[in-house]
Every structure is written in C-alpha cells, then in structure tokens.
UniProtKB/TrEMBL annotation:
Residues binding ATP: 13-18
Transmembrane segments: none
Function of the molecule: Catalyzes the phosphorylation of the 3'-hydroxyl group of dephosphocoenzyme A to form coenzyme A.
Pathway: Cofactor biosynthesis; coenzyme A biosynthesis; CoA from (R)-pantothenate: step 5/5
Source organism of this protein record: Shewanella japonica
UniProt KW ATP-binding keyword: yes
Documented EC number(s): 2.7.1.24
Subcellular localization, as worded in the UniProt entry: Cytoplasm
Keywords: ATP-binding, Coenzyme A biosynthesis, Cytoplasm, Kinase, Nucleotide-binding, Transferase
NCBIfam families attached to this UniProt entry: dephospho-CoA kinase
Name of protein: Dephospho-CoA kinase
Pfam annotation, one family: CoaE
Length: 201
C-alpha cells in the first residue's frame, strides 16, 4: 500500500463525520466504510445476489433494493447468520476501500471506519485517529439525531469496543467537546502532522 492512510474512528454519535468533513475541506480525500458497505449490497451487486440466494426474495423491497431492516432482524440474534454475512461482506468492503485509497489523489487519505478496531481494520492504516466524547453526550446526541430511545443507543454502544480500550489504541485523539473554532484548529494541526508523516513514509 503506497498511500499514507489515517484510520478515523470513534463511538456512535462522537462526530466522526464532522471531523472528516473538515479534513475534506483541506483537500484530503475520504474513504467511508459505511458508504462502501452500502455499495457492495446495492441493486444488481454480487453481495445482494448472494444474500437473496440464502434468504430469498423476502429481503428485497419492491424496488429491488435490499430491505436492511429485514436483514438486521435475521442477523441480530443469530450468531451463525451474522458470521455468514460478515464473511461475505467484510472482504468485499475491505477490497473496495483499498481500491478507493489507491485511486485517491490527495497527499494522504482519511479512511472512516466506525468499527476500525473491532474488525481489525487498523492493520490496514498507518496511524489511527479517534474522535471522542463522554458517553452521556454520545447517548444524548445520537438519540436526538436518529430519533430513537436512549436505551437503544446504549445497546449500540455496548456492542462497540469500550471507550477506554478505543482510546488506548489511538495514536491521536480529538476531544469533540471543544468549540467549533478550537476543533478546526485541532484538525489543522493534525493535517500538518499527517502531511509531514505522509511525505516521510
């Protein structure tokens, strides 16, 4: 891998997108695992064909798109089905992300991966950047953003790597409780650091 890759991660509702967009404003290309994960199961894709082959047409919406809610229902409490799905999709997502990185033109690339450490994808990056906020803020922000109950957000947080472990694995941390101006300054400083690291890599 010839590109210098910054792996950007953080718990749900921590502000990963806000931070990533500030790097984008500085001319850095983003490779977003969530967007790629949607692409590998879009209408007509091999991923979708294999899912339908296993579970049938009931997983398709009338438009022919994947019914994500129905798929979530199947894999949520079924470890075997979740493993099957992960074994199908993770290699596809990984390959598509690496291809996007190779095609990027910026001095370095930000790879946004919510489950960077959980899925072992930190092995693909040169350095890791964690966006962090206290758990109570995480719950409040996500519940408000997604219009869901706090208990549901707490379940999602519990399924992710715990905050202390994530922070211990981070090369850099952005505390996302600072003012928008301070956040911009922090991103600018990290940008200069990554430019220097990329040029000497």
């Amino acid at each position: 891998m010839s590109k210098y890759i910054v792996g950007l991660t953080g718990g749900i509702g921590s502000g990963k997108t806000t931070v990533a967009n500030q790097f984008a404003e500085l001319g850095i290309e983003l490779v977003d695992a969530d967007i790629i994960a949607r692409k590998v199961v879009e209408k007509g894709s091999d991923g979708l064909k294999k899912i339908v082959l296993r579970h049938g047409q009931k997983l398709l919406q009338p438009s022919g798109e994947l019914d994500r809610a129905a798929l979530r229902e199947i894999v949520f409490d079924n470890e075997e089905e979740r493993l099957w799905l992960n074994n199908l999709l993770h290699p596809m997502i990984r390959n598509a992300m690496l291809l996007a990185v190779e095609n990027a033109k910026s001095a370095y690339v930000i790879m946004i991966v919510p489950l960077l450490f959980e899925n072992g994808l930190d092995s693909l990056v040169n350095t890791t950047l964690v966006v962090d906020i206290p758990a109570h803020e995480q719950i409040a922000r996500t519940a408000k953003r997604d219009g869901v109950e706090s208990a549901q957000v707490e379940r999602i947080i519990a399924s992710q790597i715990d905050r202390n472990t994530r922070l211990s694995k981070a090369d850099n941390v952005i505390e996302n409780t600072q003012s928008p101006e301070a956040l911009r300054d922090t991103v600018q400083l990290l940008h200069l650091r990554y430019l220097a690291q990329a040029s000497s890599a």
